[in-house]
Amino acid sequence: MNILQMLREWSGEPHWHKQVRTYIRWMHLGDMPAVVQIEQASFAYTWTEEQILRCWRQRNCIGLVAERNEKVVGFMMYELHKAKLHATNFAVAPTCRRQGIGRQLASKLISKVFSHHRPRLTLVVRENNMRAQFFFRAMTFCVVESLPGYYEDSGEDGLLMEYRVPTTVTAEQVDRLLESIWS
Ligand SMILES: CC(C)(COP(=O)(O)OP(=O)(O)OC[C@H]1O[C@@H](n2cnc3c(N)ncnc32)[C@H](O)[C@@H]1OP(=O)(O)O)[C@@H](O)C(=O)NCCC(=O)NCCS
After folding, report:
1. pLDDT tens-digit series, residues 23-62
2. 94 CA to middle of ligand 1, Å?
3. N or C terminus of the chain with fewer C-beta within 10 Å?
4. Domain ranges of the chain
5. Distance from Cα 128 to the centre of ligand 1, integer Å
6. Class of residue 164 by CB neighbours under 10 A (exposed 0-12, middle 13-18, buried 19+)
């Protein structure tokens, strides 16, 4: 993608947009080739298949994929901690972006905060990954901390982003929140 296309994408200029209802399900071992392909197409510094598997096989780690027309088009992994969920990986296949698939994955992730009764959901974004920052801000996450030199591979800083559940929240408010993410 050249700089003009990048700026056009960031500027929110009207673009072809199709809300694709995507099926989100547990990740299976057979999804790994597609997951690794999406990971490699999405980042300059990527996790290897071994790293993905090691993380996923932890007892507190859950992997989900987004499937469309029986094809894996996105995935995410998150860890269950005592007081929070922490997303370790989150990506949508480049050809399927800006079609609402990331939104569906994020909406599922946020719903897990409620089903697992954890009040916080965190993730770390590279400082220069503006696309992900725009995306997670649109998903009502906030930057809560800067993490200098967080990434060992590039020495880049990380930004800790957080979604926090309002202290008193009703089931109706949860539905409204998820609806607002969708609208
Ligand atoms: C970030 C990412 C997951 C977004 O997935 P996506 O499927 O394209 O996101 P959606 O289509 O659901 O976008 C939802 C909203 O997020 C915002 N958004 C998404 N991509 C954006 C971009 N490039 N620029 C500005 N805003 C963006 C918009 O508000 C968008 O709503 P709109 O399309 O109605 O304007 C995807 O770009 C990706 O996989 N990037 C590479 C991997 C990555 O950086 N992962 C995060 C690591 S922490």
Report:
1. 999 999 999 999 999 999 999 999 999 999 999 999 999 9
2. 10
3. C
4. 15-182
5. 14
6. middle
Angle at 119 between CA 118 and CA 124, to 5 degrees: 90
Taking CA atoms only, the protein residue closest to ligand 1 atom 5 is 102
Q: Which atom of ligand 1 is nearest to the CA of 129?
A: 44
pLDDT recorded at residue 179 = 73
Handedness of CA 40, 46, 48, 53 (dihedral sign): negative
Q: Which residues line ligand 1 (CB under 6 A)?
A: 9-10, 12, 17, 42, 90-92, 97-103, 123, 125, 129, 131-132, 134-135, 138
Residue ranges in the chain whose pLDDT is less than 70: 1-21, 167-171, 173-174, 177, 180-183
Q: Does domain 15-182 have CATH number 3.30.470.20?
A: no
Give the pTM: 0.86
DSSP 8-state secondary structure symbol assigned to residue 83: S
Q: What confidence score (pLDDT) does residue 22 get?
A: 86
Q: What angle do CA 69, 23, 140 make, to 5 degrees?
A: 130
The Å distance, Cα 144 to ligand 1 centre, comes to 20
What tokens appear for 169 in the block? Answer: 């929240």
